[in-house]
Amino acid sequence: RDAWDARTMPDAGKELIEPPAERAINVKSDAEDVQPERRCRCRRAMAVLCAFGLGAAAGGLAFGLGFGLRSADGAAATPALVVPPGCKITAHAQADLYPGYLHAECAALSNDTIRWKRNCFMPGLNVWAPEGNIFVRLPDPARCPLAESDEWTISGWRKRFVSLAPGAAFTLPTGDTSDVPMYKLLSGTVLNVDTNGVQHDDGTWESFTVTVPNSVKSIKIDRGVEQIMAGSDGAAFVYYVAPRAKLNTVLVEGDMLDTSSVVHEIAGPYVELLQWRMFGSYGCCMQYRGLPWWNLAGFFVQDHTEQRVAYVQYWTLEEGVDTGDYHDHSDTVGNGTFGELHVHMYHGSGVDGMQSMLPATVYTNSKPRPPAVPAGGPYVVNGSSTGWINWQGANESVQLGIAIPPGHVHGPLWLLHFDGR
C-alpha cells in the first residue's frame, strides 16, 4: 500500500480543504498542524504491503505520502504543451543533498531517536529511517509544464513520479493490455480521470488527494481514459503499472524469505537504498524485534523550492501480526507526518486493511484489559517471537474494519476539531 502523511489548514472561503504540502527546512509553514483526535492501525493480515506519507503528505504491501486539498475552480482548456529541454523530475541520494546533521551538536547525541526528536534531520523523515532516503525533486511548473522521473520497480509494481502545471496533461503510455495502469495523487487536483470527487456544472469531474473518510476508492485508471489533466493548481502524482497476474498474487508466509518472490522485485535509480528491513531492527523500534513485519523506506518528494510534497514508504507483515494500538503522529517535530493514507498492493487473507475508531460512540461489549496482559511492552507468542501488545478489547469506541482490495486507497481515518485544528 502507499501511505500518505497529511496536514491541513482551515480555509472558510473554500468548500473543500486540502492539507498543504509539508515545508522543508528553511521554508516556514503558515499552516497549522492538525492533531488527530481518533486514530487508526493496520489490521492483522498476512503479507500486507503498506505505504505512507503525503506531506504536502501503506498489512499486505503498502507505501505512504503527505498531501493537501483545495476547492475546485472547474476545468481548464488543454494548452499547447511545449516542454523545454531539461524538464525532468530528478532523483538524488539523501547524503548527496543533505550530508550530516542539521545542527553540529547532534553528533554528540546518543542515538537517532534522540537526534530525530531534537530535529537533527530533515523535517518529515521517519524516526526509523531518518537517513539513506531517495530525494525526488520536482521542477518549477512555471518552466516545466510536464515532467517525469525515471522508473522504479517496487515489489513488481512499476512507478514513476509525474508533475503537471495547471491545465497541462500527461498522456498515458500505450502498454500491454495485461497491464493495469493506476495513479495516486500527491498534490493538486486532476480532471476527468474518475468520478470520485466533485462534478462541476459543466460536467467536469475534479478528483482530489483524498476520498470519503472511512471508505476506499480504486486508483485504477479506466482503459477509456487517455490522459491525466491537472486542475487549476497543477498536480503531482505517482503513475503505476502492475501486471494483472501480479496484482492477483496472494502473498503467503515465507515470501519475504524467498528471494524469487514478487516482494523482492526491486529496481531503479539508487536501488541500493531500497532494502526491506524488519521493523524491529531499527534502533527506534526494538520492542518489535522478531515480529514478521518489514519496512522499505523511502522516497522524499520535494518541489523546486525544497518544500515537502510527500514521503513514500512500503510495508508488509504476516497474518496474525498486530502492529500496535491506535496511534497518531502528533509527537513528530516540525513538519513531521500527521496521518496516513494506504494503498494496498497485494493481499494475504482477502480482508487486509485498516481499523478505525468511530468518534462519539460507545462499544458496550468493551472489556477491561486482563491483569496478565501488560498495558504495553514485550510479550511472547507461543513461546517464540518477541513482540509488542496493546489490549484492543479495552477500546471504549465502536471499531470499524475497512477492507482494502489491491489497487485501492482508503480515505482519512482521523477527525478534525470544529475550529479546524
From TrEMBL:
Transmembrane helix is among the record's keywords: yes
Highest taxon, organism lineage:
Eukaryota
- List, for all copies, the residue spans of the domain called Aldos-2-ulose dehydratase/isomerase (AUDH) Cupin: 133-360
The record's listing under Gene3D superfamilies reads: 2.60.120.990
InterPro entries per the record? AUDH_Cupin (IPR040887)
Q: Which keywords, in A-to-Z order, does the entry hold?
A: Membrane, Transmembrane, Transmembrane helix
Entry protein name: Aldos-2-ulose dehydratase/isomerase (AUDH) Cupin domain-containing protein
Name its species: Prymnesium polylepis
